[in-house]
Amino acid sequence: MDQMQKEILFSREVIDKRVKELAACISQDYEGRELIVIGILKGAFIFMADLIRALSIPCQVDFARLASYGAGSVSSGKVILMNDIEMSIRGKDILIIEDIVDTGITLSYFVQWLKERNPRSLKVCAFLDKRGRRKVTFEADYVGFTIEDGFVVGYGLDFDEKARFLPDVYIMKE
Ligand code: IMP
After folding, report:
1. Ligand 1 atom closest to the CA of 158, numbered from 1
2. How many CA atoms lie less than 13 Å away from 71 in the CB half-sphere?
3. Domains of the chain by start residue, with CATH
4. 125 Cβ inside 6 Å of ligand 1
């Protein structure tokens, strides 16, 4: 990774502006409701921290840990729920926060998993939507940025557990 070539794709300033726009939109949509925000670990933790602090409405938070990637940059196609949420979501308004939608497999699985617990509503907010590699039909309700393809790191997104800490988003070069 250290030797790997990468190029900045979204700077921290651009990210900050977009996160605030998303937060404004979500705050408006959930005005007067009791929102529970569920972050998917590990990748969503930085985006979620910024997003919820920019909301103008209160929310509660929970986390789930899902894994579909082994070491490297190719999805195994199999989703494993490593840690489930702790809260009861029956009758509640739920917003899932994810770092990136790629094949769509992780979110399709998790949405289905949560729907079985009968929330009042269930939506998804993804920081990035990588549209070119979908294997299952999946559309997030709120999207920060759309990219076609490529492997991105930074702002919570990792390559083999590296680069999550970077404040900007980079695209990796061959
Ligand atoms: P999906 O199930 O293929 O949609 O994969 C979703 C998960 O794959 C995300 O939560 C990320 O952890 C990981 N992922 C997909 N693309 C990238 C990328 O470009 N950079 C870092 N992680 C990625």
Report:
1. 21
2. 2
3. 11-150 (3.40.50.2020)
4. no
